Amino acid sequence: MPVETLIDTQGRVVRDLRISVTDRCNLRCVYCMPAEGMPWLPKDDLLTYEELTRFARVCLGLGVTGIRLTGGEPTVRADLPALVRMLSGLKPGLDLSITTNGLKLVAMAEPLRAAGLTRVNVSLDTLDPKRFHQIARRDRFHEVIAGLEAARRVGFTPIKINTVLMRGFNEDEAVPLARWAREEGYELRFIEWMPLDYQHGWSREKLVPAEEILAQIHAAFPLEPARVADPSAPAALYRYLDGRGRVGVIASVTRPFCGHCDRIRLTADGQIRTCLFSLEEYDFRKAMRGGASDEEIVELLRAAVWRKEPGHLINSPYFKQPERGMSAIGG
Ligand code: SAM
Fold first, then answer.
1. What's residue 2's pLDDT?
2. Coil/strand/helix, residue 53
């Protein structure tokens, strides 16, 4: 373990930095955003690529080993490969990944790979184009599939698929998605719907719990828990007994894994959040634009991480949904 690390009061060490590069998105998924009327961040508040790279460099000096770019939809930020090139240049072999809806991958997979991106997660909630239109409020299913194929063609591996299941929309798709992912060689992960939507429409009844998803998949394709190298990874992984890959569940609501959390998040406007559900943020935009030295950034970061929440309170009567939604935090 490097001498310089970011550690909290629970003894958890930060290894994973999620950077949101924009709060904007080219889809309007029903569990995330309203159809219209999103309050976008002012453009001048977005950290520049130079500011993001500086912040990432400081974090890499403090024991961070992986960076994931997210949003909003990260690929809608102008010239994303330029940022990837700047970040990958910080450290040879850096684990540098992206979470994307895949719409722009047909054009961008190659330049992102050439710039040093190492891994891709693509979000897809249904295999039915009409349903995709209903969930994402845009008729763009085939572009996601083409984007996935482009990512595979340029050599990204493994390609992970993120799926959110919701009652009344796509709760019957666990097995079809699992079958498709097995056939295509993608690693599928189901994320439980979390109370982070702008509309505040979340309810426990509408989320499909991991246990139900796993039971359905197990009945079709028998599973066993997989041994994992990284206990702080959010997904609980299962392997198919026939050897055809793995499937994961990110059961943030029904099986919280906060005790192993090694993540912090930088929002597109330069706020550090130590938990998806934080009610407090730390303003690094102000610090950096106010002339803070690297040493001062390090001290602010240490103080923020020290105060990292022991766990989220979704299952407690004291839970309060944060003001920012998932798209402005960076999922
Ligand atoms: N636009 C990119 C994408 O679609 O992957 C990156 C950002 S998106 C916020 C990241 C992931 O969060 C997606 O897989 C999305 O389905 C998921 N997501 C969005 N809102 C969510 C919520 N309230 N609960 C659980 N997952 C959510």
1. 47
2. helix
For the full predicted model, state whether its pTM sits above 0.70.
Answer: yes
Question: DSSP 3-state assignment of 253?
Answer: coil
Distance 327 CA to ligand 1 centre (A): 7
Measured in Å, residue 331 CA sits from the centre of ligand 1 at 5
| Among the listed residues 302, 251, 310, the one whose alpha carbon sits nearest the alpha carbon of residue 277 | 310
Could you tell me the distance, in angstroms and rounded to a whole number, from the CA of residue 326 to the centre of ligand 1? 7
For 126-192, the DSSP string reads -S-HHHHHHHHSSS-HHHHHHHHHHHHHTT--SEEEEEE-BTTTTGGGHHHHHHHHHHHT-EEEEE-
- Measured between its terminal Cα atoms, the distance across the chain in Å is 27
| Residue owning the nearest CA to atom 12 of ligand 1 | 331
Strands 187-191, 223-225: parallel, antiparallel or unpaired by DSSP? unpaired
Report the atom number in ligand 1 closest to the C-alpha of 25: 1
Mutate to test the pocket of ligand 1, among 119, 140, 326 (most ligand atoms within 8 A of CB): 326
Among 330, 215, 206, 218, CA closest to 268: 330
CA distance 72 to 331: 8
pLDDT at 1: 47
φ, ψ of residue 8 to 5 degrees: the values are -110, 180
Gap from CA of 195 to ligand 1 centroid (Å): 12
Ligand 1: residues whose CB is within 6 Å? 25, 31-32, 70-71, 73, 99-101, 123, 162, 164, 191, 193-194, 196-197, 326-327, 331
Residues 276-320: pLDDT tens digits? 999 999 999 999 999 999 999 999 999 999 999 999 999 999 999
Distance 292 CA to ligand 1 centre (A): 33
Mean pLDDT for the chain overall: 96
Dihedral, 206, 139, 269, 54 alpha carbons, nearest 10: 110
What CA–CA distance (Å, rounded) separates 34 from 176? 28
